[in-house]
Automatic annotation (TrEMBL):
InterPro entries: ADH-like_C (IPR013149), ADH-like_N (IPR013154), ADH_Zn_typ-1 (IPR014182), ER (IPR020843), GroES-like_sf (IPR011032), NAD(P)-bd_dom_sf (IPR036291), Quin_OxRdtase/zeta-crystal_CS (IPR002364), Zinc-ADH_QOR/CCCR (IPR051603). The keyword NAD does not apply. This is Zinc-type alcohol dehydrogenase-like protein. The lineage of its organism: Bacteria, Pseudomonadati, Pseudomonadota, Alphaproteobacteria, Rhodobacterales. Its main location: cytoplasm. Coiled coil: none annotated. It is found in: Cytoplasm. PANTHER family: QUINONE OXIDOREDUCTASE.
Length: 331
């Protein structure tokens, strides 16, 4: 089958077209014919840093497609089901014509989105959901009278996190964006207020007369850390997804702040007892999209799934200027 991967780490040019066998799949797995994929920052990081072992490495996590075979213990899906999911960092990726994935981290694709649009949803939706309802331990309808600061609101995670916070909690949402087009985008996503992360965040939040209880630190956490600790409420909560080299967490002690790492691959990586939580939340997100409560965060269709188009999509990710999500579809 067709796939795209790499044999050596490096720039986007190391991606190459491959011809590989269909993946073997286990008793809890689905074999999915991939119809759409998305590119995320994790793809770029792994391509540059994760050396392949035992042959070429196929990247890709977000996918939407059709189930063509099911394992002997599969209970929630049948051949012909249309699905979407964010994959497993410990297994071969979705940049392939067919992909094997554990049913417990798969959701039913929204009926109102085509495969390519649907592929832009899962990884960021899972990440945002787990930050709000896992790390921050919010429950639906709570948060009234409190606020959340979303740093990097125009990115993939920020775009869906803003929407989930507005749809399912009572939080006032403040999102950061630095360009006119990104500021317009986060307002479209539902942000109540927009501030510029290139400016003085502490002063801007003071001007809004808001002291966030929650901070979703989605980018450049090390650079923003002093401001985060300064502007957040005592006993506030911070969740981050990036990889800062150094964080002086001792500065968080006077305010008794809670600090959470969010890594959406953890459940699949460690086969946790609650793996099905990702299936359940994807199904809920799918229903919300079909009901019009959530909107697509896809802004760039990078064409069909070819090595040239995937290389270009990786380069766009590296630019740091992608708004929302990039997708590709069809082989």
């Amino acid at each position: 089958m067709k796939a795209i991967g790499y044999n050596i780490t490096g720039a986007a040019e190391v991606l190459e077209e491959l011809e590989i066998d269909r993946p073997a799949f286990g008793s809890r797995d689905l074999l999915v014919e991939v119809k759409g994929i998305s590119v995320n920052p994790v793809d770029v990081k792994l391509r540059a840093l994760a050396a392949p072992e035992g042959g070429a490495k196929v990247l890709g996590f977000d996918a939407a497609g059709v189930v063509v075979e099911v394992g002997s213990e599969v209970t929630d899906f049948e051949v012909g089901d249309e699905v979407f999911y964010a994959g497993d960092v410990t297994r071969a990726g979705t940049n392939a014509a067919f992909h094997a994935v554990d049913e417990r981290i798969v959701g039913h694709k929204p009926e109102t989105l085509d495969f390519v649009q649907a592929a832009g949803v899962p990884l960021t939706a899972i990440t945002a959901w787990e930050m709000l309802f896992g790390a921050f331990r919010l429950t639906e309808g709570t948060g009234k009278g409190q606020s959340i600061l979303v740093i990097g609101g125009a990115g993939g995670v920020g775009s869906i996190l803003i929407q989930l916070a507005k749809a399912l909690t009572g939080l006032t949402v403040v999102a950061t964006a630095s360009r006119p087009e990104t500021q317009e985008w986060v307002r479209k996503m539902g942000a109540d207020h927009v501030v510029d992360h290139r400016g003085d965040l502490v002063a801007q939040l003071a001007e809004l007369e808001l002291t966030p209880t929650y901070v979703a630190a989605l980018t450049a956490t090390d650079m923003h850390w002093p401001a985060i600790v300064d502007l957040i409420a005592p006993r506030g909560q911070i969740a981050l997804i990036d990889d800062p080299d150094v964080l002086d967490i001792k500065t968080a002690k006077p305010k008794a702040l809670s600090i959470h790492w969010e890594f959406m691959f953890s459940r699949a990586m460690f086969q946790t007892a609650d793996m099905t939580a990702q299936r359940d939340l994807l199904n809920r997100v799918s229903q919300m999209i079909d009901a019009g409560t959530l909107q697509s965060t896809v802004t760039e269709h990078a064409g069909t799934i070819t090595v040239e188009n995937l290389r270009a999509a990786h380069l766009r990710q590296e630019s740091g200027r992608v708004i929302g999500k990039q997708v590709l579809g069809g082989w």
